[in-house]
Amino acid sequence: MEKQIVSTQNIYHKTASLFPWMIMILMSSVTFVGILSELMPSGVLPLMMADLNINEIQTGNLVGYYAIASAIFAIPLISMTMQFNRKHLLLLLLSGFSVSNIIVGLVHDYNVIVFLRIIGGICAGVMWPMIAAYGMRLVDEKHHGKAIAVIMAGTTLGISIGMPIMTTIGNEYGWRAEFVGLGVVILAIAVISLFALPSIPGEKLTKSSSPFAVLRNPAVLVILLLTLLGVTAHYGAYVYITSLVDEIDLAGGIESALLFFGIGSMISVLLAIKLTDKYLRLLTITMFALLIISMITLLMFGRTIGVGHVAFFLWGLSFGPLVTLMQAAVSRQVENAKDVATSVQSSVFNLSIMIASSAAGLLLGVYSPMSLVYFAVVLSIPGIIISFFAKKTLSRSL
């Protein structure tokens, strides 16, 4: 068995220069359903509130609890599973996603649903960093950024295509059908992955590759700060996107907002696939700048016919490459155990979602939904400044 694994690795190393598109696309489908699993409550807030007899903050917490579970468990579980076969681990995580979503769609107790969301969050906490590192081990070093961009494109497609589809399903057939349907799709992806993905052994965790060693790297700390600012800014508004849409009375409602947001996201992720390896710093600065422009447009002209849609499009342009840029940036700072480095970044990413969800919920409890726009802008300004001066870190190539 060990010889077979080594042989498989050698085959992929020899063909890495050709770039394994089909394998990367399959991995992208995993991140596609992963982001849907995390964010689906955002598109059906009113339906879940009415069915479960809970308030808006409790419903938003279904995203927040998921995120905090990912943040808390990512680093210890990635460290514990470093030596696990990558394929076997991914299949286990997909099973967890599938079962938790299907059961959420079948039960009626809010506390049970919270527990299941936490289980899903734990699976996500391990999946996000490991799948990026898994993909990078299948390509030449010069294609690492491209591999991350393709794999993480699933998150953008999930938001741009998946979310509108799932929201429509939720509105037409009920939010429960939405969750059960996603669970079945995830199960299908797991079956395909069983036969299609290469078997890659894990790595030995050492003192030099531990999470604590990674956190002593100043460049990594810069990336983590940028992650905190970027994710909190984006998700603070995105988790309650339905409230923003209702506030400006956008023509076409939430489906229209997600469509334009998604088109922008798809365009930017295609650019990220092509440009991340060469222009990481420029793309990071542009991401923060576009978020500021989109939020100001939404604030000042969002109620003007057509302009609100442009604002959501620009927001999508900013949002699309967020995951790709931050994971590519942190992976450049270490030579070995990229799973651990990306797990640290992923923990901060998910912790930031939790912070965003909680802070945005508090703002909504006191102010109008437009306060979330100010929230995003205030966080994006230091993001631009840090990105501009982090030339050495964001331009670093191993």
Automatic annotation (TrEMBL):
It is found in: Cell membrane. Its main location: membrane. It holds the Pfam family MFS_1. Keywords: Cell membrane, Membrane, Transmembrane, Transmembrane helix. The keyword Cytoplasm does not apply. The chain crosses the membrane at residues 21-43, 63-82, 89-108, 114-135, 147-167, 179-198, 219-241, 253-273, 280-301, 307-326, 347-366, 372-390. CDD domains: MFS_NepI_like. It is a multi-pass membrane protein. GO terms for cellular component: plasma membrane. Residues 22-394 form the Major facilitator superfamily (MFS) profile domain. The keyword Cell membrane applies. GO terms for molecular function: transmembrane transporter activity. This is MFS transporter. It comes from Oceanisphaera profunda. The lineage of its organism: Bacteria, Pseudomonadati, Pseudomonadota, Gammaproteobacteria, Aeromonadales.
